[in-house]
From TrEMBL:
InterPro entries: DHFR, DHFR-like_dom_sf, DHFR_CS, DHFR_dom. GO terms for cellular component: cytosol. This is Dihydrofolate reductase. PROSITE patterns: DHFR_1, DHFR_2. It catalyses: (6S)-5,6,7,8-tetrahydrofolate + NADP(+) = 7,8-dihydrofolate + NADPH + H(+). Pathway: Cofactor biosynthesis; tetrahydrofolate biosynthesis; 5,6,7,8-tetrahydrofolate from 7,8-dihydrofolate: step 1/1. Residues 1-161 form the DHFR domain. GO terms for molecular function: dihydrofolate reductase activity; NADP binding. It is an enzyme of class 1 (oxidoreductase). It comes from Companilactobacillus tucceti DSM 20183. It comes from the Bacteria.
Amino acid sequence: MISFLWAEDKNHVIGYKGRLPWKLPNDMKRFKDLTIGKSIVMGRRTYESFPNGPLPKRLNIVMSRNSKYQVKEPAVLINDISDLSKYVDMNSEIVVIGGSKIFEAFKDIVDRLYLTKIDYEFKGDVKMIDLDYSKFKLIEKEGGIMDEKNIYPYTFETYQRI
Ligand SMILES: NC(=O)c1ccc[n+]([C@@H]2O[C@H](COP(=O)([O-])OP(=O)(O)OC[C@H]3O[C@@H](n4cnc5c(N)ncnc54)[C@H](OP(=O)(O)O)[C@@H]3O)[C@@H](O)[C@H]2O)c1
């Protein structure tokens, strides 16, 4: 099963200058809860945005068209979606964590969407791709808790393909 996991602002912005445009620790916690123990798939640029290399306690699968691109162990590199089954059981949950190019590559086969909607406008240079939400059903929605460390209004949503 393929899932998407991402956070976007009011204008669907997801990235700026190779980083996330915001700090939202509660969203980082949700990210962790939804990915620990699973396989995560990411683009080369998203991988390079992690300051300490592969994320622990998850199989990190990095996509690049450059077959010589070096990832830090224990991450693995794939050059094409078709290589995914070499590393993961396709019946287990595989969480695609972006960025936009990687969401594009998986959009026709994604089953579940874990989305954080941040009700704020940020400067950005990467946006989430268009998804056809009529093909998905909202199965969970939860307002995010705001505090001194989580200063933007946000909502967690989960959709399942109909
Ligand atoms: N808000 C969020 O939830 C969220 C989530 C993820 C990322 N982001 C942000 O988004 C930005 C990065 O996203 P991005 O869209 O620029 O880059 P990206 O999707 O992370 O990476 C793009 C790279 O992935 C490789 N790639 C793309 N499609 C491929 C395919 N079909 N097969 C094999 N390799 C493929 C290529 O690598 P090569 O050039 O090496 O061939 C391409 O340059 C950063 O700012 C990051 O912080 C935000």
